[in-house]
Write a structure and sequence with these properties.
The chain is of the alpha+beta class. It has 4 helices and 9 strands. It has one domain (about 5-150): Small protein B (Small Protein B, Chain: A, Beta Barrel). The protein starts with 6 loop residues before the first strand and ends with a helix.
Length: about 150
């Protein structure tokens, strides 16, 4: 098996949310979904996670249809079950009961064994002034790096 690096990120997550705990979860995939992920035909920008009946699910994660698949192709925007242990699920459930807290995906990647994994984070939305502070700090850091370079 060719070990091609697959690293699909949610770049807006760290800007839009304040992150608390990060978990690595497996995904229950079916059919040709893993082949599409291996060819980097997936997106987690609009995705979010939710708790339902003792399980964690991911919604709006887009995995494009496999181009060489036939009628066995999967649905691109189907809900997919995330595989975590019971202790992690209980901790996430307690976190999500607080108003304003959410669970967002950060990164989709393949392990050395070829399994698809996803990093999810317990998060809380940032206010506008927090986002402005982050941008200001980023600009200040860039200016300091330029000054140090000269």
């Amino acid at each position: 098996m060719a070990n091609k690096e697959v690293n699909i990120r949610n770049k807006r997550a760290r800007f839009e949310y304040q992150l608390f705990d990060i978990y690595t979860a497996g995904m229950q995939l079916c059919g040709t979904e893993i082949k599409s992920i291996r060819s980097s035909k997936a997106s987690i920008l609009e995705a979010f996670c939710f708790f339902q009946e003792g399980e964690i699910w991911i919604r709006n994660m887009s995995i494009n249809a496999y181009e060489n698949g036939s009628f066995y192709n999967h649905k691109p925007k189907a809900d997919r079950k995330l595989l975590l242990n019971k202790k992690e699920i209980n901790k996430i459930e307690r976190f999500l009961k607080v108003k304003g807290n959410t669970l967002i995906p950060l990164k989709l990647f393949l392990t050395e064994k070829g399994w698809a994994k996803i990093d999810i984070a317990c998060a809380q939305g940032k206010k506008l002034h927090d986002k402005r502070n982050d941008l200001k700090e980023k600009d200040d850091k860039r200016d300091m790096d330029r000054a140090m370079k000269k």
